[in-house]
């Protein structure tokens, strides 16, 4: 995965210097809200999920694989997605493409042994299932993460966006080309 996709050049930067409505600087306020969101998110990963951030990112790759497969049939509601995850956990839904530790390591550009070790730790916590034939999938422990952690994260993102909207940062972000 190329990091160049996330870089902005000077042609793509909106000044953020003054909000035209309030004439207040908005960049630092928006950035502060973002940083506080990230700190809270990181802390919840450590405290609520009891896993390190690299393990969380590995889990996100497994989740993204499941979401990719789920979205092939069209967008799903929160409850429909929960049902899809339940089917994956109960092994009622097979992925056409098997997800392996090697493929996760390649996506994240991490050492294979580190990824394998962290996958085994997530497996021991029942968050992931590792099959020789079906690959790496979400485990029964992920249902609790989905119910609690995903719900709270959704509320936190909503709060962040509302803060950005109130400060004018959201409008400025949306105007970046």
Strand order of the largest sheet: 1-2
Query: What's the end-to-end separation, in Å?
Result: 22 Å
Q: Structural class per helix/strand content?
A: mainly alpha
What overall form do the CA principal axes indicate?
Answer: globular
Q: Radius of gyration from the CA trace?
A: 19 Å
**How many strands in all?**
2
Q: Output the helix-strand order.
A: HHHHHEEHH
Beta content: under 5%
Question: What can you see in these coordinates?
Answer:
With 177 residues, the protein is mainly alpha-helical. It is built from 7 helices and 2 strands; from the N terminus they run αααααββαα. It has a two-stranded antiparallel ribbon. A hairpin with a 3-residue loop joins strand 1 and strand 2. It is globular and about 55 Å long. The two termini are 22 Å apart. The model has no long low-confidence stretch (mean pLDDT 85).
Can you give keywords for this protein?
177 residues, two-stranded antiparallel ribbon, 7 helices, 2 strands, 5% strand
In a few lines, what is going on in this structure?
By secondary structure, the protein is mostly helical. It is built from 7 helices and 2 strands. The protein has a two-stranded antiparallel sheet with strand order 1-2.
Secondary structure blueprint with pairings:
Layout: H1 27-49, H2 53-71, H3 78-89, H4 101-108, H5 112-124, E1 128-131, E2 135-138, H6 142-167, H7 169-174
Antiparallel strand pairs: 1-2
